[in-house]
Amino acid sequence: MFPQCRCFGVTRKPRATILTPAVGKKNKKKNKGPRDQHFVPRCYLSEFADPNTPLGQEPYVWVFDKDGKNPRKRAPKNIFTETHLYTFEFNGEKDFSMEQSLSTIEAKYAYIFRHKIKQKKPLTETEHAYLCAFVAAQMVRTPRFKENQENFIQQLIDHGTQMALAHGVTDSPQVRQWMEYKKNAHKIQMMDSIPYIANILLQMSVAFLCIKAPSKHWFITSDDPCVFFNPDLQWQRFYGPGFGQQNVQLTLALSPEVTVMFTWANFRGYSYVSGGNVESMLNRMTRFHSNKEFISPYPKKKWIWFSRVPLDPFFLWKVVKNETKMRLHKLHNRWRYRKMYAKR
Hints:
The chain is of the alpha+beta class and 344 residues long. The chain is 41% helix and 15% strand. The strands form four sheets. A five-stranded mixed sheet has the order 9-10-11-7-12. The protein has a four-stranded antiparallel sheet with strand order 3-2-13-8, with helices on one face. A hairpin with a 2-residue loop joins strand 5 and strand 6 (93-95). The longest helix is centred in the last third of the chain and has 31 residues, at 313-343.
């Protein structure tokens, strides 16, 4: 029986200094920082290195396209980076405060994973806070999140421009403000979202799902590794998952042997999961949720990762039942409309 983490359910807020970068403050070292910045941390990717890496060679992971094609070996330092993704620029000078703050969280997380989670030991309140901060940062630092933010602002710019032109205004101050805001929208949104999401995660139950034989079954990760899922919503296409939903779950594979899960249910501590659940549920969702690429510690892939539905008889029966119900509903509506128009 594994020990349960004492810190789960804590509502105490983490210190703002571990989450919010001091952007704009004078710092002689702020103009020195990395040009290529990881949107999936190097320390995190290193845990998925191929265990069969030849001695003396730099550890590497196996990168696959989302459809499973084009497998290639890549060192963690050379993947999932963008140029100045978190760098602010003030009066021609670059500010790396956000990158430095993220590096602090990553360093704390790396220590916690190696010395506590990997050893299946309970976390302290501070370690729990840093874990939540790391997961919160990973949710909002990806290119997909950045694109969603910028696309939303671009829609405002397009609509604002059309309205301004309709009123004979060719240079709208509001549109210019949106265009200027768009340049740093992702970074600003990260500053607002990371503390907010971390405080929510602090109040949720945390469980660590473990594998006994990682050589047979293992967890995979991706370029957008946090998977947000609510099983109650999979039968409809209108609503998306959210933290306010009772049965929502957030999973993040921390290594080929461990995945962390945040839920509102009373599910805590370390527990082993079967290989079938790993392949048909967790890895399948991780691969599906990836943006462009997914990561595995081994060059081989499993076909179940690419299945649209899990191979569970009860679930398949529910799929058939739901599809039949939807098709009958569409036929019924079509018949009603035809009957209504025939009367006219």
